[in-house]
Amino acid sequence: MTQHLDDQVPAHILVVDDDPTNRYVLATTLGRAGHRVTTAEDGTRALELLRQPGQLPEIAIVDVRLPDMTGFEVCEDIKQTPATAGIPVINISASAITVDDRTRGLYRGADAYLVEPIAPGELLATVTATLRYARARRRAENLAHRLHRLNRVTLALYGATSARELIKATVEGAASILHCHVAAFLTTPQGGVMGAHAGDQQKDESPLEAQVYSLTTSGDQPETWTGLVDGVPDSVRLPAPLAQPELRHTVVGRAKADRPPVLIAVPADAVEFSDDDQLLQQLAHASALALEAMRSYSEEHALALTLQRSFLPENLPETARADLAVRYLPASERAEIGGDFYEAISTTMGLVVAVGDVAGHSLDAAMVMGQVRHALRAYAIEGHPPHVILSRLDHLLTSVQPGTSVTLCVVLIEYDSDVIHVANAGHLPPLLRAPDGSSVFLEEHGPLLGLGLKHPPAHRVAAEPGSLVLLVTDGLIERRHVHLQQSLDSLARVLAEAPQHPEDVCADLLDRLPPDGSDDIAILAVRLNAPQTSSQPDPRGK
Predict the structure, then answer these.
(1) pTM score over 0.70
(2) CA angle 343-465-373, nearest 5°?
(3) In what order do the strands lie in the sheet with 89-93?
(4) ∠494-500-504 over CA atoms, to 5°?
């Protein structure tokens, strides 16, 4: 790309000389070459002009002999003031012309020293050479500053946890690098189109407030963006801030050829150098790579969740002895899958229900969960009582999955009596709500599974018809910085006020104890009906 600000572009030049004739000659010579000239008759006036807000001159030409101070002092002041330190100074003099004078001027900050009378060609050549050096230095400093910003923005991109955060960081980063209005577009991992824009960030680095839009398309969601018109996808209906006519310069970043791109649009005049365009390209590419990582994680997470759900029961048994309802919520998209599970099965001994949790959050935890649940089902069908089921599962874990721990609560509901049997291996205690609304935790428990320890017999509890048994995993109630007992007390209060039907109970729990997304949640609610006259399972049991 052609540089807009090359060495031949005219400059704004400050001429400081107390001789009106010299000022006129210098200003005329520079003006004829296309430069814009501001003049000052002494050092005080020159420094006043340099302190005024607005565009600073690119070069100062300062006579050494001034009425109020020397040109050397003016030069030193310019170089010692941060706002003007980068302005090159050319000293001129008709009297201070010795080698010592020129050496003194250069040592005190001058970038060049000319002796009058000055030939027009020498003056212009010196100005051009000085501009070339000063502009090259400014470009290098500006590039270093922008590369530093690009590094910070790239870290923000890779730290984004959602497409909304990513596109927000992209436009804010581009605006902070180029100091201009920016729009960006991307296709989310879920297939939607998202756009965002941010205004010009001032040099005081005031915070940006990017606006993010979920966009609709005129047809199906585009797999790739083709047919770009003025930097925006032609299939997308854009709100006004994203359709500004000055956003003519666009760059596209792709992680792979077959992936939807990240597109960044800026005003054409915002890209002054080829370096600016390369920085914008790098930003778009970094954003595309971050989006690709997000998309890959989303795909892997969805696959893992599908596998995890395949390990859970497809349906619940139907029995006149109890009404059942269940809720299973995986952790948020940003969290690893866990090992929470539930089970409900009609057996010859009664209705067996269980809720458990494999330690850890990973695909391995989900695999162990599937093994434990299927073994639990097999042992229950064989007719083993709850504590024997736990003992056999413990032996299974220590044999084939050493080092793995599992919490599990198994409840056997007898068909022909009001007795339930509770065997708890280190899990949250089940909560029993009586028909009058009073609730009690059944806190008797043994060691968690996987330790090779003996499990005590199941705890027998009388539960009259109309009672409700609630089994949950810790994702429903555990919160960081909140004591577990406080969370259990909250669960008891909510259940005491919850509706009667198990389905309504589950819905009410999730409404009043909203998940924080950090862990999986399993809820199993069982309302007990009158005992049956036969000890055999209900003929409708599945």
Answers:
(1) no
(2) 5
(3) 36-40, 12-16, 59-63, 89-93, 112-115
(4) 75
Q: Is the pLDDT of residue 207 over 50?
A: no
| Residue 136: CB atoms within 10 Å | 11
Q: What are phi and psi of 346, to 5 degrees?
A: -85, 130
What proportions of the chain, in percent to the nearest 5, are helix, strand and coil?
Answer: 35, 25, 40
pLDDT at residue 297 is higher than 80: no
Interval 450-472: pLDDT, tens:
888 888 999 999 988 999 999 98
Backbone angles phi, psi at 306, to 5 degrees: -60, -45
Tokens of 21: 């004739």
Q: What dihedral do alpha carbons 380, 385, 387, 390 form, nearest 10°?
A: -10
Closest to 290 (Cα-Cα) out of 150, 162, 149: 162
| CA-based R_g, the chain, Å | 38
Q: Which of 281, 396, 271, 344 is nearest to 537 (CA)?
A: 344
> 493-518: buried (b, 16+ CB within 10 Å) or exposed (e) per residue?
ebbeebeeebeebbbbbeeebebeee
pLDDT reported for residue 240: 54
Q: How many residues does the chain have?
A: 542
What the block records as the tokens of 148 is 């530093």
By the 8 A CB rule, do 318 and 502 touch? Answer: no
